[in-house]
What we know:
The chain has helices at residues 3-12, 30-42, 69-82, 98-103, 114-124, 152-177, 199-226, 234-237, 256-264, 278-294, and strands at residues 46-51, 87-90, 129-135, 145-146, 149-150, 182-186, 230-232, 245-248, 252-255, 265-266, 273-276. The chain is globular and about 55 Å long.
Amino acid sequence: MTISRFRSLASAAAAVALAVGVTVGAGGTGGQDAAQAMAAATTPTRYLALGDSLAAGYQPGRGDAKTGGYVGSVDRYLTWKLGRNVATTNLACSGESSTTMLLAGKCSYREGSQMRAAEAFLRQHRGEVALVTLTLGANDIQRCARGGAIDLPCLTDGAGKLFRNLPEIYGRLRAAAGPDTRIIITDYYNPFLASWLSGQSGKDAAKQSALANVALKEYIGATARAANAQRARVADALRDDDTTLVSDPTYGEVPRNVQMICTNTWMCTDTKDIHANDKGYRLMANAVIAQWRTGLTTTNP
């Protein structure tokens, strides 16, 4: 994906905001039990979660829930899948952008920035980490849409920062983790589809916001591949591209993607908050788990 394509898609949205398991058997021969026990003892059993408020499990009125959100569900899955407890470390920072992840300034870390803290953790526990997840990028762009107004220079600047910063972040994670650690990077659902409920201008805004989210998804996928990482399809989990009209008891006849945003985030409540609710975080976890189960392939976009 070229810079010009990314920026052209982002600019097209300038009228709106962007936004199962292997277990050790009780039976069998002593030799089999010993082999299974040895395999379990050498299985990496750490999980490192990184990113912004979605990785921190934030919900309005509740704040961060770093042992909850999608990370908590992934932790429970890994514990079941690997047949032993998983030590999860969540370094995510609400409000983190790609710039603050690299340079610090949003949350406090002994190493200075979330990036440096992640590198230190991965080097200290080299070979022990089963999974790294990262959710990052939305704060670089959605900050440019406040109060219904779009700051186009801000949007262009945010896209440029993503294009510069994400390859560095992904590459440094891969270098610190080593070649064999699984790294799964989530894309984003589009919370601004909820504007469809606000009359014709809202419908137009929802369509335009979809263009920007396509650009973000494509860029995250392409950059993840370059770092030998996987993309978790969160947008697909919330049916972002499904415009089939459905009858909803609360919202009437709406596209399915709008219904999914209203059902799985706080956007259609009085808070009008972009974050996932409990249902939404479960869907995000399912997207991560699906990639874990699939494994890295050369065709993973």
